[in-house]
Design goal:
This protein is of the alpha/beta class. The chain is built from 14 helices and five strands. Helices cover 49% and strands 8% of the residues. The longest helix is centred in the middle third of the chain and has 27 residues.
Length: 346
């Protein structure tokens, strides 16, 4: 018979894991503090004998170039020594209506980088509909893939043995899963189906459908590219000094966290754009000053004229001006130097 206290603790564990999965990036740090405090009360999270520092890693954000920190698994201890590159897709397919449904995507490295301005520019064309942010919902699909494939690497041998031995029911099959290619196809098809249904409103009379987002890293970029291989992706960056100056501090746990995010995503964007001809890295400053090459890229991908771009640029809305403290300026200048140099900011 199961001990009632054990059942209660197990329920608490599941609730806390579900809670951690739903945390957006900007509050992961606070969630970690809350769950570590709950840990001291409940006495366990990942299992008996697990140190609190290890348990907190399950919900702490990872480096921003991959954004794997959103992944939480109650059996993560089994994954510790398995080498793995997330979203290393193995299957190919023919172009379909679903794979062409989203044709233009705008991603910004951080908030206050000009993604809404670029969205407005694209929407100045009558038959274009670029939706706003969707709370990084694709991170859940990337997380499903991550968990499924990691688990498949554990249970792959069980699957092989089971089918090699004529589906022998006397074999251990507790972790037996389909091959990773089936997880990949399932995630891609599910993500496409969700986005097609989600963005079906006002679909009529528009021949370019897309969205903008400011929370995505490498895992989500890889998933988007697999879902929509022909889509144009505009990756927007901005000088970190000006970006932080216009960002409400309450949006991020700390400047250190924000710097890590900026560095990781900018590095991700640069590498991704370098290897994908339909992926374009844009600087906000070049857009504002109407740089010739930038205007050409935006005009071609969004199918709009320079006159349309200039009209939107002339109509300034929103925005926020703040002050940059000397200590913050030094911290950003020192720790973002490598990426700032790569982007020709210094």
């Amino acid at each position: 018979m199961t001990n009632s206290s054990d059942e209660s603790t197990g329920i608490k564990d599941r609730h806390r894991i579900a809670f951690a999965r739903q945390m957006p990036d900007r509050v992961h740090s606070m969630a970690g503090k809350i769950l570590r405090r709950l840990d001291s009360v409940c006495g366990r999270f990942a299992g008996p004998g697990t140190k609190a520092s290890n348990r907190s890693e399950a919900i702490a954000p990872a480096s921003c170039d991959s954004d794997e920190g959103n992944q939480v698994s109650p059996r993560r201890d089994k994954f510790a020594n398995i080498p793995y590159s997330p979203l290393s897709w193995q299957f190919s397919e023919e172009s379909t209506a679903d794979s062409r449904f989203i044709s233009l995507i705008i991603l910004a490295a951080n908030h206050r980088a000009g993604s809404t301005l670029l969205q407005r520019i694209c929407n100045s064309r009558e038959k274009t509909l670029i939706w706003g942010e969707h709370n990084s919902l694709l991170r859940h699909f990337a997380s499903i893939y991550y968990d499924a494939v990691r688990f498949e690497e554990i249970g792959g041998e069980e699957r092989e043995n089971f089918f090699k031995q004529s589906e022998n029911s006397n074999l251990w099959t507790a972790s037996m899963c389909p091959e990773s290619e089936y997880a990949q196809r399932a995630v891609v098809e599910s993500a496409r189906a969700f986005l097609r249904a989600f963005y079906s409103q006002y679909r009529e009379n528009h021949d370019i459908i897309g969205f903008k987002e400011v929370q995505y890293g490498r895992s989500e970029l890889e998933l988007l590219r697999k879902c929509y291989p022909e889509a144009n992706v505009l990756l927007l960056v901005r000088n970190p000094l000006n970006t932080w100056k216009s960002t409400p501090p309450s949006w991020y746990p700390s400047l250190d966290y924000w710097i890590e995010k900026w560095n990781g995503r900018v590095n991700c964007f640069r590498n991704f754009a370098a290897g994908d001809p339909n992926c374009h890295l844009l600087r906000y400053e070049d857009l504002i000053r109407q740089d010739g090459k930038t205007m050409e890229i935006v005009g071609e991908t969004a199918k709009i004229s320079r006159k349309q771009i200039k009209t939107v640029l002339a109509n300034k809305i929103g925005g926020k001006k703040g002050e940059l403290e000397k200590a913050d300026k030094k911290a950003i200048g020192d720790r973002c130097r490598a990426e700032m140099e790569a982007l020709r900011y210094i």
